[in-house]
Amino acid sequence: MVELFGTEAIINMWTLIFGALFALGAFIFRKVVANDLLGWKFSVAGAIAGGSITFIILDNLFHMIKLSIGLSIAGWLAGGFLLGPILWDGEAGGGNEA
Fold first, then answer.
1. Which of 42, 50, 93, 97 has its CA 20 to 30 A from that of 57?
2. pTM score, two decimals?
3. Could you give the number of structural domains in the chain?
4. Domain span at residue 31?
């Protein structure tokens, strides 16, 4: 049987930490950079899924944290920008619209 949670499992503490950082970073990046500066749609759900799944797979295959972080940031960006126009969470609404 495969152990899912724990120090030697598929989802360990590093996966949870980077998942939380991907989530927080996606919310901030969408509002500040993607919507306000660039004017592009950026999906938070796509970014979290792309970054987390990429990190889990690479961390379990290669056990190299630098490679896993670097490529999962690329997956985070790809998931966010590619799913931004498709999913309905691509725009951060502010209270300044008149």
1. 42
2. 0.82
3. 1
4. 13-83
